[in-house]
Amino acid sequence: MTPPHPEITPAACAETLQTFRDTGPLVQSLTNTVVTNWTANVLLAAGAAPAMVDNPHEAAEFAAVAGGVLVNLGTPQVETIAAMEEAVRGASAAGTPWVLDPVAAGGLSWRTEVGRRLLSLHEPPAIVRGNASEILGLAGGAGGRGVDSTDTAETALDAAHALACEHGTVVAVSGEVDHITDGTRLVRVHNGHVLLTRVTGVGCSLGALMAGVAAVTDDRVLAATTATALLTIAAEAAATESRGPGSFAVALLDQLALITPEGLESRLRIDGGTA
Amino acid sequence: MTPPHPEITPAACAETLQTFRDTGPLVQSLTNTVVTNWTANVLLAAGAAPAMVDNPHEAAEFAAVAGGVLVNLGTPQVETIAAMEEAVRGASAAGTPWVLDPVAAGGLSWRTEVGRRLLSLHEPPAIVRGNASEILGLAGGAGGRGVDSTDTAETALDAAHALACEHGTVVAVSGEVDHITDGTRLVRVHNGHVLLTRVTGVGCSLGALMAGVAAVTDDRVLAATTATALLTIAAEAAATESRGPGSFAVALLDQLALITPEGLESRLRIDGGTA
Amino acid sequence: MTPPHPEITPAACAETLQTFRDTGPLVQSLTNTVVTNWTANVLLAAGAAPAMVDNPHEAAEFAAVAGGVLVNLGTPQVETIAAMEEAVRGASAAGTPWVLDPVAAGGLSWRTEVGRRLLSLHEPPAIVRGNASEILGLAGGAGGRGVDSTDTAETALDAAHALACEHGTVVAVSGEVDHITDGTRLVRVHNGHVLLTRVTGVGCSLGALMAGVAAVTDDRVLAATTATALLTIAAEAAATESRGPGSFAVALLDQLALITPEGLESRLRIDGGTA
């Protein structure tokens, strides 16, 4: 029998990546207008099938057949917010896991309210992903400036723990070290590269990858960790062969396709403990 | 005198590409939010002039001066659907050829209705372009999952033939082998590369290229074949010099600019017959 | 004491670029759907922090904390125009410089009216940036076809001068030679490369760079010149190492990060005079 809180190991992440590649999950992305193309290309490179169905007439219908759903608040408009609510309704009814990325929560009041409403509307998100300022902002603190985090991941750990426990979700705090917690387990991922901060939408695409991996495993901590591992290890490999943000972005897409489960297992640097 | 149904040959495609490059047609793209940037860059690389005028206040006005118009249903919203209807009205009144790309038709009911309404609203599209599931869905069958085709191009040939005859249009079914028919002629294009399925929006940009080539020739089968030839031959060349989806997309844009009419003629593998 | 109209020199531009890099200004971009991703990546590569807050509920709130604001009319919709008006209101109240890019002004009547209304709504823009056709169109003449300029920069100089004097703004006319004037001074930038016309959104991203540099200097002619210098010099360097529009776009992003203030100073070819 599987224990209720299995340990997150590089081997488990590698196995999950293999399942993800074998499955090619359909990921519905309701995301911001800056990163739609990038997000779709990240999903395709990694091995998933992207689809953006972000109108209120079809969002629920599609969430019922999608493997996972991403809701990203980067550029909310009245019509797309209505679509997000429909997508969450459809996902909740169908048991489809969904990921909330509360971009700029705390820093801007309108979207902060939208994010908090989505948290409690139907089923909770499988994963909430943000930088430290956004997690603090969603949990009730003051936010950063736009999409930048003005806080380190560590400072948001109490807020992440509280959000995870209150809503029965997993919270992933991106930063120089990524932190992932369900309120019981805490995983730290030490991979990554500073060039990730020089390409727009990398964090947003991580949320989409998490929605994709959540489609193939019920352990949401494992899903968030595997997605983070894939992206940050691909970034390390890409950085060695690029000389600026343009060539880095291209190499990152290549590496997302080239990284094997074995490569991921050997390069992944995680530790953890109790939240 | 030109026969009413001239044979489609590599030489005719090469000549059409030369005219396209000499003309630099203005292509109005009302397309989905995932592929706007990619579509514009594909058009620019190939030698056309892209413009996205997708609001209902200006869409008809612009369609009257554009060389060709693309209407792509990938991410419909109420305001952009109104713009599409205006664009089709303006194009029809001015005699501007327009292309319909019924993304995910059959799979999602709202947009399927939109696609069918656009087909019969004013002048029919010069070309309908989609994968097999979308063509089947538009014609009345069940569709696939999102933008993926779960059917091969061959299975959609009866539906393509019926659509072409009923609406007086050309239907292009994308797939491992591309099929293009006006109900009388049938052309099969055997070029292409599997990496085309790992970059988002390639099919969507093919629709835009078709709208551009339709601006320079009245033979819509020739237009659809020339556009398909250019994209798939550029893809073959790009694939030899890339190692993943990121570098492939970059090389594809380069090759769209580098492929000459002579190169296209020598590499094009088509056959045909009677539909 | 600084003279009211200091001369624009390569050394002054280099110093301004250094300040820009040291500051990393937050640039709010309300831009068209074709270029959102590209614009954000250009800003990140150059050293700024992009944020697109383009809904009417938050645009004013964010303009108060942004370093600079870009308003680009490429794909206006009712909701985003309302956001642009809010952003200009917020920027004007807070003293945040904003840049107007009147894409396709003159060629399309609805957006031309929007552009003229924005000019006089609150504080004037710090900089108006467009190609010759757009500047002529905004000033009252007939425009070009879409985003293409059918006029040379020189033909728009009278219109640029008139706009600058009437509204107390700086007008930057992009072209083979870029012209920048405040009605008193006139700067010509002779750098650049023809491949800039084969990648979508380069002009649009120049407007965003100008909003970013305007955040770090009160001399708007210097800001517009420095932004133009950075982009066109990066383009020259990128062109030497690319073979088509795809690889050029990648190299351009790399070069925007690699160009140093010293490199900019040594390569910049400007002259000027009295407008």
From TrEMBL, chains A, B, C:
Its EC number is 2.7.1.50. Catalyzes the phosphorylation of the hydroxyl group of 4-methyl-5-beta-hydroxyethylthiazole (THZ). It comes from Mobilicoccus caccae. Keywords: ATP-binding, Kinase, Magnesium, Metal-binding, Nucleotide-binding, Thiamine biosynthesis, Transferase. Pathway: Cofactor biosynthesis; thiamine diphosphate biosynthesis; 4-methyl-5-(2-phosphoethyl)-thiazole from 5-(2-hydroxyethyl)-4-methylthiazole: step 1/1. This is Hydroxyethylthiazole kinase. ATP binds at residues 129, 174. GO terms for molecular function: kinase activity. InterPro entries: Hyethyz_kinase (IPR000417), Ribokinase-like (IPR029056). Its cofactor is Mg(2+). It comes from the Bacteria. It catalyses: 5-(2-hydroxyethyl)-4-methylthiazole + ATP = 4-methyl-5-(2-phosphooxyethyl)-thiazole + ADP + H(+). Substrate binds at residues 52, 201. NCBIfam families: PRK09355.1. The gene is thiM. Transmembrane segments: none annotated. The keyword Ribosomal protein does not apply. Belongs to the Thz kinase family.
